[in-house]
Amino acid sequence: MTDMITDQPYVLPDWESWGLAGLKILLFVGLLAALWELINALTHVDDEQELFTRRNVPYAVVRIALVAAQAIAMVPLLGYTTGAFWSELGTLAGWGVGILVVLLALGAVGNRVLGVGPAPSASAGSAALPAAVVQGGFLVAAGLVFHAALSGTAPSIGTAIASSLVFAALGLVALLLAHVVMMTIGPFGRHVRPQGSNLATAVMTAGVLIGLGLVLRTAISGDFMGWGAGLAGFAVTAVAGLIGLLVLVWLIDLLIIRSRHMRDIVGRDEVLPAVVMATMVVAVSLGVSAVQF
Questions:
Q1: Entry pTM
Q2: Angle between helix 227-255 and 271-290 (nearest 10)
Q3: d(CA 288, CA 216)
């Protein structure tokens, strides 16, 4: 086999490249801080009191999930290169603000859409932890969908914007529909208590949501190859990935913790086994998302 290694020396980036990279990182951090401060302004909640004095775990879970979702969604923007200094910064700033606004909206309505009651408030206390865990899983899954929608290339700026918006919307719709399917015919779905009333149910639901987000990331990500091919590829990959994930979740239920099935775990509100099972679902989803259908 021919050796493909070249003798070309490594060329250090110039000062403009270093400066652009530094500004991107500063803007990235600034957008994360902006979301945090904007939530503070909209809710009139004292973060230090909730996190350090009251030790409000549900509040912390949702805030952590928002930061993680925003960071995951914006990562492709850091690697976006055009060779134009202000174009790259403007792209990061524009899409970053858009992600911030959408995540705020999803944080406000996510739990109602998922059917587990209102989003946890700062004063709700530990009783709101199941809803907070579900909302956290949904936000991280949404971040994975946005990450995929903003990756890849397109023939023009207009096409890139349109395809990112369309596939992000399709990804969120598919996430909710797949969630309904898993909660209906999955190995524990029919045994889930309404309104997120126990923590084991919430942990399993969050794990499934993140797993679905990983699968949908594969269905969405990639270069834009035309609307027909893109939509068909999304549909085929999303359906195949969902079926594969559903089958593997059934296998996890049968093989991992043999003394308990998922329906028993959520029925008895056994949190630690639920964490183990949810982690396995996410781990399996990483494998499913790496397969090219």
A1: 0.86
A2: 140
A3: 10
For residue 34 the two structure tokens come to 């902006």
Q: At what angle do helices 157-185 and 199-220 cross, to 10 degrees?
A: 140
* Cα–Cα–Cα angle for 176, 179, 182, rounded to 5 degrees: 155
Structure-derived torsion over alpha carbons of residues 43, 49, 54, 55, reported in degrees to the nearest 10: 90
pLDDT tens, per residue, the chain with 293 residues? 444 455 566 556 666 677 778 888 998 999 999 888 888 887 777 777 888 888 888 888 988 999 999 999 999 888 877 767 777 888 888 888 999 888 888 877 766 666 555 555 544 555 688 888 988 999 999 999 999 998 878 787 888 889 989 999 999 999 888 888 877 777 766 555 544 468 888 898 899 899 999 989 888 988 888 888 889 988 988 888 888 888 888 888 888 877 778 888 888 888 998 899 899 989 988 888 887 65
Q: For residues 212 and 141, give the distance between their C-alpha atoms in angstroms, rounded to a whole number.
A: 7
List Cβ<8 Å contacts ≥24 apart for 25-34.
25/78, 27/89, 27/92, 27/93, 27/96, 28/71, 28/74, 28/78, 28/92, 28/96, 31/70, 31/74, 31/93, 31/96, 31/97, 31/99, 31/100, 32/67, 32/70, 32/71, 34/100
- Give, as one character, the DSSP assignment of residue 14: -
Helices 85-114, 157-185: crossing angle, 10 deg rounding? 20
Token pair, residue 159, equals 């096409």
Taking a C-beta distance cutoff of 8 angstroms, is the pair 31, 97 a contact? yes
Dihedral of alpha carbons 159, 161, 165, 168, sign: positive
Q: What DSSP line would sit under 23-74, residue for residue?
A: HHHHHHHHHHHHHHHHHHHHHT--HHIIIIIS--HHHHHHHHHHHHHHHHHH
All structural domains of the chain with their residue ranges: 18-124+137-150, 152-293
